[in-house]
UniProtKB/TrEMBL annotation:
This is Integrator complex subunit 2. GO terms for biological process: snRNA 3'-end processing. The keyword Nucleus applies. It is found in: Nucleus.
Length: 1197
C-alpha cells in the first residue's frame, strides 16, 4: 500500500452503459437488447449469462421464448465461456475462505502479505490473473478487494490512494469487471464489498462502479463524501462515479441531487447533475432548471445550504486555473449562454455614442426584450445578484458586459416588465462595478432616462402601479439627503435578499443621480406620481413616500418648480388608519406653510394650492346630516380627523401670518363659514377622545386649536355632561334599550308633538324611549325636537316633558352643538301675528349673541328651556369673541394704509391697530354687560307677578326667615312656596351663568356694577353669585365716582357684601364708606343730602351687624347728620331739638332706651312724619336707623 498521492491517467476511452441499454436491461426488453452493438452488449454479458443459465422464477411461455433469444445473442460472443466458468465455482467455500482471510487481516494488520484465498504469488498480480483459471481469478479479485477494505477501515474515512495493478490495467479490466459482477451476485459479502467499492481509489474505479452498481449505492457515496468535492481528487472521483451512474439512469438524477442538498455534500455533483438535466430538458422560453436550482440554494430559507453552496463558489474562484472540466466553469458558461440567448440583440456600447439619446423610446436603436423572455430575464438577474452578493462570485468581463446589456434592455409594459425594470435598477445600485467604462456609464444613463419617460406609460398599460417610479423617486431623495443606508435597505428589499453593499460603492451613482438624471426639478416632477401608501399607519415602518414628500415640501421644491402636490397629499390623508403615523401631522404643518408662505420674496405667487372645499366635504360624506352618523362613511375617522386638523391649522396660520401676507400683497382664501358649519367638529372630537392612544398627539393638537378658534365648543359644562353621557349610567341605560325605542321615527315624534295640547302621554312615552339612545342615534330627531319647543311653552305642559326635552337637548349638544343652537334659537322666536319670523344663521348669532335673548317671553319663566337658552348665550358670547378677534386680524392690515395717510404722522403707524383693538374690547365689554343687564332684568318679577304678591327680595328674606325664625309655620310655608316657583329657579340659573362670566372676566363684573342695576336685585346677586366678593376690589373706586347715584349704589352693594362676606377687607372698605359719608355730609346741598342719605342710611345697620366695632363711628355719623339737618331748619328748632336730644341720650345710655325702641311707633317710623320738609324726613330716618341698630345690638347681647 502506498499512502503518497499518485497521478494516474484518466480512462476516458472506456465504454459506459448507455441509458438505452440500461432501460432495456431493466425491463428485460429482448428486442431492444438485440439491437445493441457488440461493445454495448459486452458490458451486459455477466447479467445476461446469469439470466440465461440460472433457473428463472418466471416459468411462462413468453419468458422461455425470450430466453432463447438471449441464448442466441450470447452464442456468438467468445467472452461468454469465461463467465460461464465463473458461475461454476463453489461459492460457499469461497465465502468461508473470504471470511477467514478478513479475520486474519484484521488480526495481523493491513500490511500483512499472508492470504488464505491465494497462496504466495510467483509473479505479479496481473500475470497471475491472466494465467489463472476461473476459480483462482475469483480468489485473486476477492483478495484484492479485502485488502482495500482493510485499508479503508484504517484510514478513518480519509481519502487515500492505493495502487492496484489489477484494476489499473485496461487489458484485464473487462475480465476483472466480470469477476466483480459474479462475486456481487454469488457471495454474501456483497454488502462489505460494496463498502470497499465505495472507497476504490484506482483510476478506473469510476468506470468499474458504473458498470456494476445500482442506484441504491448513491446515498452511501454521498453521505460519506466530501463537503466540497472539487477541492480533492477523491471528491472529483466520487462525483464522476455518481455522475456516470445518473447518466446510465437519468430518471434517478434529480433524486440523487436531492440527496446532495440534503446531506450538504458534493456540491459539484449537484450542479453537474443539473447541467446534464438542463441539456436533456432544454427550454428556450421558460426558466431553466439550472437557474431554479442554484437560486433555490442561495435564496432559500436554509442558511446551512446557502453557506455550503457559497463556499463552493468562493473556493472554485480561488483556484488559479479553471478548465472546462470544472463544474463551476461549466455552470457559469451555461448561465452565460442562457443570458445571451434572451438578449434582444447583440449590442455594442459604441451604439450609444452614435445614437441620439433624446430619441423616442419606440424608435430608438434599442430592441425590446421579448415578452416571453421577461420572466426568465428577471430570474437570471436575481440569480446573478445572489451569486455575486451572497456567494461572492466575481464576474468576468464578458459576464459583466452581457449582464449590463440585459439590465439595460427594455421590456414590454406588463407587470412582469415592471418587475424586471425594478430588479435591473436595484442590481445597478448594488453592483455598480458592472459599469466600468464611460460607454457603459452612458448606456446606463440613457436607460435611466428611458425609465423616467416610460413610467407613466408602463403604469397605464400594465394595469399596475409602476413601482419602479416610486423607487426612482425614493432613491433620488435618498441621494439628495445622503441617506445611503436607506438605499441599501431598499435595494435588499426589492431584490429579496440580504447582501452586503458598501456605501462607498454608491458614490459614483450618487453623482449620476443628483447631477445628471434626477436633479431636484426632476425629483419634484416625479414625486406627485408616486403612489400613496394604502392604509398608512404607524405599523408601517421604514422610509415611505410620505417622507419624500415631507422633505420636498420643507425644501419648497414643489413651489419652486411649480408642481402641484395638493392632490397627492389629499389622497394620502384619505388613505390613513390607526395607529396614526407620526409623519402625518408634520406633513400637514409644512404643507400649510407652503400654501401661505412663498418660496421666495421675489416670487410671492410661488405657493401650493390648498385643498378645495368640495374635497373637504367629500371626506365627511355620510357624517353630515345623515340619518345615522355611523352609516355610509366612506373615509375612516383618522382621515376625517386629519382633515379637521388641516382646516383648523390652516385658519390659525392664516390669521397668524396676516401681517406678512399683507406686506406681500397676498390674501390666501379662507374657508367659508358655511363649510365649517357643515363639519361635525364636536362629534369628531368625541371620537378622537376615545382613540387618544392610537392618535398620538392629534387629540391634544385638536383641543388646542379648538380652544383658540372655537372656544364655544370647549365649555367645561359640556365636557362634564359628556362624562355623564358616556359613563356607566349610560351603559346601564343602553342595556334597557328595547325595540320600541328603536322603532320610533322622527315622523312619529312630530305627530306626538302635534297632539300635545290634548294628549301628553304619547310624546312623553316617545321621548322617554329616546333618552336610551346614544347621541349619534338622536341626530335624526334633532330638528323635530327643536322645532316643537315653542309648543312646550303653552300652559299645562307637564314639567316632566320639559325636563326630558332638556335632557335630550343636552345629549345632542355633545355631537352637534352649532347646528342645534341655530335650530333652537329660530324655534324659540316670539310668534307675532302677521310678522314673518327671521331665520338666523350661525354667522348672525356670532355677530350678535343677544339675539338668543330675544326669544319668547314665556321662556324666561320656563326653567328647562331657560337653561338651554343660557347655555346657548354663553356659547355665542364666547364664539363672538373669537369671531371678532379673527375679523380684526383679517382686516387690520387692509385698512392700515388709508388710516396712516389720514393721520399723516410719522412714527405712529401702530396707532390705528391699537385703536381697533380697543374698539373690539369695548364692543365685547358692551356686549357682555348688555347680556348681564338683560339677565338681571329677567330676574325681576313682572307686573303680573307683583300683583300676585311676589316681592323682589322676598326670596332671600324668606329663606333667612326659614333659617332664623323658630316658631311661625306661616313663614316656612311662604318660604317653601317661593323656593319652588319658576322665578326662583330661573334666578338660580341666571346667577350660575353670571358667576361663570364674572370668574372668566372680572372686568365684566366691574363694568356691570359701574353701570348699576336695580337695588332690589342686590340681595339676590350678592347671595346667589358666589363671585360677588370681587366687587370689594373696586367699590372704593365706585364710591369715588362723582355721580351721586353710583355712590349710593356702591354703599348699598357694600352693605350686602359685608353681611355675606364679613372679612377684614370688607371692614376696611366699610370704614372707608362711613368716612366718605361723613365727608359728603359737609359738601352736599340740602337736596342732594336728602337724596344721598335717605337710601344709604339703612346700609349703616348692615355695617353694624357685620362689624360691631363700627358702632361708635356710625352713631357719631348719625348724630352729626342730624345736627346738620337741624341747623338747616332753625325755624323748626322746636321740632328738631327733641330728636337730637333723644339721639344723644340713646348714644350715651342705649340700654335704658331698649324698651322704648321696641315701641311699635318707633319701629314703624310713624312718629313726626307729617312734615314734608326733607331735613325733617331725614331726621326721622336717622332716628329709625339708630333704633334698628339698638334693637340689633340688644338682641345680639
Amino acid at each position: 500500500v502506498q499512502d503518497q498521492p499518485v497521478i494516474m491517467t484518466e480512462c476516458t476511452s472506456l465504454q459506459f452503459v448507455s441509458p438505452f441499454a440500461f432501460e432495456a436491461m431493466q425491463k428485460v426488453d429482448v428486442v431492444r437488447l438485440a439491437s445493441l452493438s457488440d461493445p454495448e452488449l459486452r458490458l451486459l454479458l455477466p447479467c445476461l449469462v446469469r439470466m440465461a443459465l440460472c433457473a428463472p422464477a418466471d416459468q411462462s411461455q413468453s419468458w422461455a421464448q425470450d430466453k432463447k433469444l438471449i441464448l442466441r445473442l450470447l452464442s456468438g460472443v467468445e467472452a461468454v465461456n469465461s463467465i460461464v466458468a465463473l458461475l461454476s465455482v463453489d461459492f460457499h467455500a469461497l465465502e468461508q475462505d473470504a471470511s477467514k482471510e478478513q479475520q486474519l487481516r484484521h488480526k495481523l494488520g493491513g500490511g500483512s502479505g499472508e492470504s488464505i484465498l491465494v497462496s504466495q504469488l510467483q509473479h505479479g498480480l496481473t500475470l497471475e490473473f491472466e494465467h489463472s483459471d476461473s476459480p483462482r481469478r475469483l480468489r485473486l479479485v476477492l483478495s484484492e478487494l479485502l485488502a482495500i477494505m482493510n485499508k479503508v477501515s484504517e484510514s478513518n474515512g480519509e481519502f487515500f490512494f492505493k495502487s492496484s495493478e489489477l484494476f489499473e490495467s485496461p487489458v484485464y479490466l473487462e475480465e476483472a469487471a466480470d469477476v466483480l459482477c459474479i462475486l456481487q451476485a454469488g457471495t454474501v459479502l456483497s454488502a462489505k464489498i460494496a463498502v470497499a467499492r465505495s472507497r476504490l481509489t484506482a483510476t478506473s474505479a469510476s468506470w468499474v462502479q458504473a458498470m456494476v452498481f445500482i442506484i441504491l449505492v448513491c446515498r452511501g457515496l454521498i453521505k460519506n463524501g466530501e463537503r466540497q468535492d472539487e477541492e480533492s481528487l477523491g471528491g472529483r472521483r466520487r462525483t464522476d462515479a455518481l455522475r456516470f451512474l445518473c447518466k446510465m439512469n437519468p430518471s434517478q438524477a434529480l433524486k440523487v441531487r436531492g440527496m446532495v442538498v440534503e446531506e450538504c455534500h458534493l456540491p459539484g455533483l449537484g450542479v453537474a447533475l443539473t447541467l446534464d438535466h438542463t441539456k436533456n430538458e432544454a427550454c428556450e422560453d421558460g426558466v431553466s432548471d439550472l437557474v431554479c436550482f442554484v437560486s433555490g440554494l442561495l435564496l432559500g430559507t436554509n442558511a446551512k445550504v446557502r453557506t455550503w453552496f457559497g463556499t463552493f463558489i468562493r473556493n472554485g474562484q480561488q483556484r488559479k486555473r479553471e478548465t472546462s472540466s470544472s463544474v463551476l466553469w461549466q455552470m457559469r458558461r451555461q448561465l452565460l449562454l442562457e443570458l445571451m440567448g434572451i438578449l434582444p440583440t447583440v449590442r455594442s456600447t459604441r451604439i450609444v455614442e452614435e445614437a441620439d439619446v433624446d430619441m423616442e423610446p419606440n424608435v430608438s436603436v434599442y430592441s425590446g426584450l421579448k415578452e416571453e423572455h421577461v420572466v426568465k430575464a428577471s430570474a437570471l438577474l436575481r440569480l446573478y445578484c445572489a451569486l455575486m452578493g451572497i456567494a461572492g462570485l466575481k464576474p468576468t468581463e464578458e459576464e459583466a458586459e452581457q449582464l449590463l446589456q440585459l439590465m439595460t434592455s427594455r421590456p414590454p409594459a406588463t407587470p412582469a416588465g415592471v418587475r424586471f425594470v425594478s430588479l435591473s435598477f436595484c442590481m445597478l445600485l448594488a453592483f455598480s462595478t458592472l459599469v466600468s467604462t464611460p460607454e457603459q456609464e452612458q448606456l446606463m444613463v440613457v436607460w435611466l432616462s428611458w425609465m423616467i419617460k416610460e413610467e407613466a406609460y408602463f403604469e397605464s398599460t400594465s394595469g399596475v402601479s409602476a413601482s419602479f417610479g416610486e423607487m426612482l423617486l425614493l432613491v433620488a431623495m435618498y441621494f439628495h439627503s445622503n441617506q445611503l443606508s436607506a438605499i441599501i435597505d431598499l435595494v435588499c428589499s426589492t431584490l429579496g435578499m440580504k447582501i452586503v453593499i458598501k456605501p462607498s460603492s454608491l458614490s459614483r451613482m450618487k453623482t449620476i443621480f443628483t447631477q445628471e438624471i434626477f436633479t431636484e426639478q426632476v425629483v419634484t416632477a416625479h414625486a406627485v406620481r408616486v403612489p400613496v401608501t394604502s392604509n398608512l399607519s404607524a405599523n408601517i415602518t421604514g422610509f415611505l413616500p410620505i417622507h419624500c414628500i415631507y422633505q420636498l415640501l420643507r425644501s419648497r421644491s414643489f413651489t419652486k418648480h411649480k408642481v402641484s402636490i395638493k392632490d397627492w397629499i389629499y389622497r394620502q390623508l384619505c388613505e390613513t388608519s390607526t395607529p396614526l403615523h407620526p409623519q402625518l401631522l408634520p406633513l400637514i404643518d409644512v404643507y400649510i406653510n407652503s400654501i401661505l408662505t412663498p418660496a421666495s420674496k421675489s416670487n410671492p405667487q410661488a405657493t401650493n394650492q390648498p385643498v378645495t372645499e368640495q374635497e373637504i366635504l367629500n371626506i365627511f360624506q355620510g357624517v353630515i346630516g345623515g340619518d345615522n352618523i355611523r352609516l355610509n362613511q366612506r373615509f375612516s375617522i383618522t382621515a376625517q380627523l386629519l382633515v379637521l386638523y388641516y382646516i383648523l391649522s390652516y385658519e390659525e396660520a392664516l390669521l397668524a401670518n396676516t401681517k406678512t401676507l399683507a406686506a406681500m400683497q397676498r390674501k390666501p382664501k379662507s374657508y367659508s363659514s358655511s363649510l365649517m358649519d357643515q363639519i361635525p367638529i364636536k362629534f369628531l372630537i368625541r371620537q378622537a377622545q376615545g382613540l387618544q392612544q392610537e392618535l398620538g398627539g392629534l387629540h391634544s393638537a385638536l383641543l388646542r386649536l379648538l380652544a383658540t378658534n372655537y372656544p364655544h365648543l370647549c365649555i367645561v359644562d359640556d365636557w362634564i355632561c359628556e362624562e355623564e353621557i358616556t359613563g356607566t349610567d349610560a351603559l346601564l341605560r343602553r342595556m334597557l334599550l328595547t325595540n320600541n325605542a328603536k322603532n320610533h321615527s322622527p315622523k312619529q315624534l312630530q305627530e306626538a308633538f302635534s297632539a300635545v295640547p290634548v294628549n301628553h302621554t304619547q310624546v312623553m312615552q316617545i321621548i322617554e324611549h329616546l333618552t336610551l339612545l346614544s347621541a349619534s342615534e338622536l341626530i335624526p330627531y334633532a330638528e323635530v325636537l327643536t322645532s316643537n319647543m315653542n309648543q312646550l311653552l303653552n300652559s299645562g305642559v307637564p314639567r316632566r316633558i320639559l325636563q326630558t326635552v332638556n335632557k335630550l337637548w343636552m345629549v345632542l349638544n355633545t355631537v352637534m352643538p352649532r347646528r342645534l343652537w341655530v335650530m333652537t334659537v329660530n324655534a324659540l322666536q316670539p310668534s307675532i301675528k302677521f310678522v314673518r319670523q327671521q331665520k338666523y344663521t350661525q354667522n348672525d348669532l356670532m355677530i350678535d349673541p343677544l339675539i338668543v335673548l330675544r326669544c319668547d317671553q314665556r321662556v324666561h319663566r320656563c326653567p328647562p328651556l331657560m337653561d338651554i337658552t343660557l347655555h346657548m348665550l354663553n356659547g355665542y358670547l364666547l364664539a363672538s369673541k373669537a369671531y371678532l378677534s379673527a375679523h380684526l386680524k383679517e382686516t387690520a392690515e387692509q385698512d392700515r394704509p388709508s388710516q396712516n395717510n389720514t393721520i399723516g404722522l410719522v412714527g405712529q403707524t401702530d396707532a390705528p391697530e391699537v385703536t381697533r383693538e380697543e374698539l373690539k374690547n369695548a364692543l365685547l365689554a358692551a356686549q357682555d354687560s348688555a347680556a348681564v343687564q338683560i339677565l338681571l332684568e329677567i330676574c325681576l318679577p313682572t307686573e303680573e307677578e307683583k300683583a300676585n304678591g311676589v316681592n323682589p327680595d322676598s326670596l332671600l328674606r324668606n329663606v333667612q326667615s326659614v333659617i332664623t325664625t323658630s316658631t311661625p309655620n306661616k313663614g316656612i310655608e311662604e318660604g317653601e312656596d317661593n323656593l319652588l316657583c319658576n322665578l326662583r329657579e330661573v334666578q338660580c340659573l341666571i346667577c350660575c351663568l353670571l358667576h361663570q362670566m364674572y370668574i372668566a372676566d372680572p372686568n365684566i363684573a366691574k363694568l356691570v356694577h359701574f353701570q348699576g342695576y336695580p337695588c332690589e336685585l342686590l340681595p339676590l346677586t350678592v347671595a346667589g353669585i358666589p363671585s360677588m366678593h370681587i366687587c370689594l376690589d373696586f367699590i372704593p373706586e365706585l364710591i369715588a365716582q362723582p355721580e351721586l347715584e353710583k355712590q349710593i349704589f356702591a354703599i348699598q352693594l357694600l352693605s350686602h357684601l359685608c353681611i355675606q362676606y364679613a372679612l377684614p377687607k370688607s371692614l376696611s372698605v366699610a370704614r372707608l364708606a362711613v368716612n366718605v359719608m361723613g365727608t359728603l355730609l359737609t359738601v352736599l346741598t340740602q337736596a342732594k343730602r336728602y337724596a344721598f342719605f335717605m337710601p344709604t342710611l339703612p346700609s349703616l345697620v348692615s355695617f353694624c351687624r357685620a362689624f360691631p366695632p363700627l358702632y361708635e363711628d356710625i352713631m357719631s355719623l348719625l348724630i352729626q347728620i342730624g345736627q346738620v339737618c337741624a341747623s338747616d331748619v332753625a325755624t323748626q328748632t322746636r321740632d328738631i331739638d327733641p330728636i337730637i336730644t333723644r339721639l344723644q341720650q340713646i348714644k350715651e345710655k342705649p340700654s335704658g332706651w331698649s324698651q322704648i325702641c321696641k315701641d311699635s311707633s318707633y319701629k314703624n317710623g310713624s312718629r313726626d312724619t307729617g312734615s314734608m320738609d326733607p331735613d325733617v324726613q331725614l331726621c326721622h330716618c336717622i332716628e329709625r336707623t339708630v333704633i334698628e341698630i339698638i334693637n340689633m345690638s340688644v338682641s345680639g347681647i
